[in-house]
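ok new one. same drill as before - structure tokens go in, u give me an amino acid for every spot. 258 of them this time. try not to just spam alanines like last time pls lmao
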């Protein structure tokens, strides 16, 4: 797979996807979006890849936002098409775990990409922000919605209206990220988290993520019903029996995703 803007490395079931435009702080262009879609499509049904880690090239930025040179020419039709928002929806709904390894600035579209991932691990040098109002636009790739769900309405409004940035420590305290690592340990930490997830029952991991995300858009009673149905489905699987038998026999389970 030849990609103009991404580097991809697969090892031990984990695909490391690096946005490789360090000269513009890995800004999200139309080509980056196209390449990301190709990667998502390629790995969706690839049994050799169980999880994806997304990061940025260099040590200055994860993704510093959208490509402003292209943004300058966006119009009403571009906004209504909302290609970036639809791409990030694909990331959020991806059937395999996604982890953002945030190695520097995650601003605008970069922060929105990280929020669309299942987990966010930040280097101590990382910075997060939604500065779109500086350009008289708003965070239109899911930022207004995902930020509020992750950190609460009050802080989300503060970040969007002021454009201020959060440090990695502040992002951890607010619940925007789940872990913080030293910069030189960031990718190893992300890969280790991915491998930990891959050691679990794959159907359980997939359904757990689906239930949690579905429940966020429903009342608690509806979420509990979805949870109950997902659990009932898992009770019928070969992997449920394998997990119980492996635990009782004190051996490592062999998952079949059935």
């Amino acid at each position: 797979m030849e990609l103009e803007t991404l580097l991809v490395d697969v090892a031990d079931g984990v695909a490391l996807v690096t946005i490789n435009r360090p000269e513009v702080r890995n800004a999200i262009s139309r080509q980056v979006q196209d390449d990301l879609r190709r990667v998502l499509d390629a790995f969706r049904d690839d049994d050799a890849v169980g999880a994806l880690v997304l990061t940025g090239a260099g040590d200055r930025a994860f993704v510093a936002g959208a490509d402003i040179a292209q943004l300058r020419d966006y119009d009403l039709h571009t906004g209504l098409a909302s290609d970036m928002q639809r791409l990030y929806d694909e990331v959020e709904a991806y059937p395999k775990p996604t982890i953002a390894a945030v190695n520097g600035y995650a601003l605008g579209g970069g922060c929105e990409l990280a929020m669309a991932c299942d987990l966010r691990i930040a280097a101590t040098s990382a910075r997060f922000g939604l500065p779109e109002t500086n350009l008289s636009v708003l965070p239109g790739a899911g930022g207004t919605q995902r930020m509020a769900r992750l950190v609460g309405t009050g802080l989300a409004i503060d970040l969007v209206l002021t454009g201020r940035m959060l440090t990695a420590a502040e992002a951890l305290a607010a619940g925007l990220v789940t872990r913080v690592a030293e910069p030189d340990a960031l990718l190893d930490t992300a890969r280790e988290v991915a491998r930990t997830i891959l050691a679990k029952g794959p159907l359980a991991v997939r359904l757990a993520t689906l239930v949690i995300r579905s429940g966020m858009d429903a009342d608690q009673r509806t979420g509990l019903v979805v949870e109950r149905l997902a659990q009932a489905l898992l009770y019928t699987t070969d992997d449920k029996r394998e997990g119980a038998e492996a635990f009782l026999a004190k051996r490592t389970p062999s998952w079949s995703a059935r």
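DSSP finds twelve helices and ten strands in the chain. and btw The longest helix spans residues 30-44.
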